[in-house]
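Quick log. Single chain, no ligands specified.
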Amino acid sequence: ISLSCPVRQTATTEIPIFNKFGQEVTLSASISGEYFSGDKVASLPPYGTQLFKIKYAPMKVITPPQLHKGTAMFYLMDGSCLVYVLEGFATPPAMAERLQVQLPTHTSHTLIILVHNWLQVPQKLLVTHSLESSSEPVSRYKLSYHPYLMVSGSKTRELSLTLTSYLPGTLTFKIMLMNESTEEYEWYEVVCEVHPCGPLADISLTTTVRQPVYHDLVVRNPLDSVISVGCIA
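-> predicted structure:
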């Protein structure tokens, strides 16, 4: 019997067991294998069939041809035993959550992701990101966060991200948190709808007639590359 699912999720199947005896029997089962579990005891009516549920809940990703192994053994009243070989394959983790936000350009926006520790022991998770897609051919943004997040066993902690986009459009980020020792990870998708901002500031100029007045406007380049700035009055 083969089962497959993303790591830290669950796959189930049912094994039909037929009672060949003319009386109701209590059937006991023994399930082995680190990530396999299932029903232990069930009553079977005379000449009836009972479905035994088997659950596969892997906590580690494996690569082919490796498989998680287990057995399901069902003990019958005449002393015989039915044996099923269990095989499980854990694929990479599915997306933990998708977050959607809207923000104006040139304005810092703080995003909070609730990160759950899937283990019962503390984990130090490396935080990285990648830009998966952009509606514009050129993207200008700054995404900052602490490079590591410590999370206690089976607890949830907030991960704070600060995003500033300098062009309008749609940005889709993949945020990954990895245990560098085990290489196990989980990831989130953040979809940002960025719209043009309004005025950054109001500048008031007061003077008497026929007397010019001046205001020094400081323009800061937030990017790592040289840019050309034009002025339209």
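The radius of gyration is 30 Å.
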